[in-house]
Specification:
The chain is α/β, with parallel strands linked by helices and about 575 residues long. It contains 13 helices and 22 strands. Among the domains are: about 325 residues, Peptidase S8/S53 domain (Rossmann fold, 3-Layer(aba) Sandwich); about 60 residues, no CATH class. Strand 9, helix 6 and strand 10 form a beta-alpha-beta unit. Helix 6 runs parallel beside helix 9, helix 7 packs parallel to helix 8 and helix 10 crosses helix 11. The longest helix has 18 residues.
């Protein structure tokens, strides 16, 4: 049964802004309240009124019911975006297109076999179409194109401080080792980025295939031609997945704020500085001015980041349900060694019990980030999880760039995430041969242990100077893709207080990691390892778990009868096939 449409939240809070230079050289701490410019709805900020947002959400949710994400079975060797489509898949696509309820079919990712199927009928007919699709043995999974949107909570405080997060993570000391390198590309998957901002333009990624002059002498950036043949016209700075154009300009502020924390230009006598003073920021817009977007557009951004060679993706959005299609693309990103940094969530809840995606995807390249305060407490809104949230970083009252050469304070795990993405960019600058496995292990193990993060995997807050000091020659030349785990059903947790510095929720019975030892990545389980007691039977031999392009009939049994660690060791394609080693 398909999961219902749910809202996904972009994980940040509120704004106070100031024009560049309005502080007159003074610290923002010294400014009085009268000098702070309050954001207005008509300034295209990311806070439209509630009625407008609700109307947009209702309309977009209704449209999402008419869009299905269909993933076909693919060969492990088909990780090539330019390869020919398998004849059997072509036949299946023709069969799907011939259905009377199908309006059109659009390819999202050839390498992952992902297509967007738009229905021409009303939502009531969707279920019959889904059943027809599932009868095709080449179909791996079918899911609704879920609605995503931002959280727009506004705190009571007015002015918070300047770049305390940069100091807290010891970035100035790290800059003695490296200030970054333009060869490292961080793709900000968000509301877009203001690529003209005075503190960002110097660090924006520029598509080499869309720069320079074409054969006729015209500027490739504006000639209206897809010069590099990647399917997007004039994508100089990235992609706008909403309209399919090459213009990812931010009309919301959230993505620009994240970009400034990752890579605001340093030593330019302007505004702020990012964790990586030198870096290439690729922009991919899938969230609109209202802060909403679709799963299919997020998938297009992930595919674009793979196609265009991004080193890291920064994902300050979350919520919703497990997406087989997204998990498939993250598998491919893992095989390519592309790190996926994700916001843990702003629900102040335990992600071990109440999964939040994409932060809860189990692949080793995913780094889930909680938010911390200036006093090293856990931010009151931050989600946590002793087996699912990897580490913490500054996320309360973070000053960064917003559109139109302005700056503002935001709070959220959205703000913690780019601190980690920027730190990883510095690490890759110091050692370009670093593997994703090495990078994740180093950044988690070298952080500073703080009690507020005891309910995370590492128990540590980011320390970029320590991470750079630990960067050496990588020991593992490749990263082995780990199997994708089945979605964990939501469990209603016991009410928990807002997290504080002394916050220490009770661990769940299935996990009891110590926050003190350095974390290590779980190796890919060997399929030959006999499953210990508590795991489901070898699924390939059990008809109840047989998978032939249809949804597993008893996925919930596996989720309910295995521990979270056991679930991560189960090899899955949509649903479990075999049981691996449980740790």
């Amino acid at each position: 049964m398909l999961l219902p449409i749910v809202a996904i939240a972009l994980l940040s809070f509120a704004v106070f802004e100031t024009e560049a230079g309005s502080a007159g050289g003074r610290s923002l701490r010294q400014m009085n309240q009268a000098e702070v410019i309050m954001p207005k709805d008509d300034e295209n900020l990311w806070m439209p009124d509630d009625a407008h947002k609700n109307l947009l959400a209702i309309n977009e949710a209704a449209n999402a019911r008419l869009r299905l994400i269909v993933t076909f079975q693919t060969s492990p060797d088909d990780d090539d975006k330019t390869s020919e489509v398998d004849p059997m898949t072509i036949s299946a696509l023709a069969e799907i297109s011939s259905l009377t309820t199908v309006k059109n079919v659009k390819e999202i990712s050839r390498r992952a076999g992902i297509h967007l199927v738009t229905l021409s009928s009303d939502a009531e007919d969707a279920e019959s179409t889904i059943r027809d699709l599932e009868e095709n043995d080449l179909v791996k999974s079918v899911e609704y194109d879920e609605l995503l949107h931002i959280n727009d909570f506004i705190p009571d405080d007015t002015l918070f401080g300047d770049l305390w997060g940069i100091t807290k993570i010891n970035a100035p000391s790290a800059w003695d080792v490296s200030t970054g390198n333009k060869d490292v590309v961080v793709c900000v998957i968000d509301t877009g980025v203001d690529y003209n901002h005075e503190d960002l333009s110097g660090n924006m990624w520029r598509n080499p295939g869309e720069t320079g002059r074409d054969a006729s002498g015209a500027d490739k950036a504006t000639n209206g031609i897809d010069d590099d043949g990647n399917g997007v016209i004039d994508d100089v700075y990235g992609l706008n997945a909403i309209d399919g154009s090459g213009d990812p300009m931010d009309d919301n502020n959230h993505g620009t704020h994240c970009a400034g924390t990752i890579g605001g230009v340093g030593n330019n006598a302007l505004g702020v500085v990012g964790v990586a003073q030198n870096v290439s920021i690729m922009a991919c817009k899938f969230l609109s001015s209202s802060g909403s977007g679709s799963t299919s557009d997020a998938l297009e951004c992930l595919e674009y980041a793979l196609n265009m060679g991004a080193t890291i993706t920064s994902n300050s959005w979350g919520g919703g349900s497990f997406s087989p299609a997204m998990s498939s693309l993250i598998d491919i990103a893992e095989s390519r060694g592309q790190l996926f940094v994700a916001a843990a969530g702003n629900s102040a809840s335990n992600n071990d019990q109440r999964p939040q995606y994409p932060a809860n995807y189990p692949q080793d390249i995913v780094i889930s980030v909680a938010s911390t305060t200036e006093s090293d407490g856990m931010s009151w809104f931050s989600s946590y999880g002793s087996t699912t949230v990897d580490m913490g970083a500054p996320g309360s009252n973070i000053l960064s760039t917003i559109t139109g050469n302005r700056y503002a304070f935001f709070s959220g795990t959205s703000m913690a995430t780019p601190h980690v993405a920027g730190a990883l960019a510095l690490m890759y600058s110091a050692n370009p041969n670093l593997t994703a496995t090495d990078a994740k292990g180093i950044i988690m193990s070298t952080g500073e242990s703080i009690s507020a993060l005891s309910a995370t995997v590492s128990g540590k807050r980011l320390d970029v100077a320590a991470a750079l000091a630990a960067v050496g020659e990588p020991t593992d030349p490749t990263i082995t893709p780990s199997p994708t785990s089945a979605p964990t059903p939501s469990v209603s947790p016991s009410p928990t207080p807002s997290p504080t510095t002394s916050f220490s929720p009770s661990p769940t019975p299935s996990s009891s990691p110590s926050p003190t030892p350095s974390p290590t990545l779980s190796p890919t389980p060997s399929p030959s390892t006999p499953p210990p007691e508590g795991c489901p039977p070898a699924c390939k031999d059990d008809p109840d778990y047989l998978f032939k392009g249809k949804r597993n009939r008893d996925c919930n049994w596996v989720a309910k009868n295995t521990t979270s660690r056991c679930r991560k060791a189960i090899n899955v394609i949509g649903c479990p096939l075999t049981c691996g080693a449980c740790k």
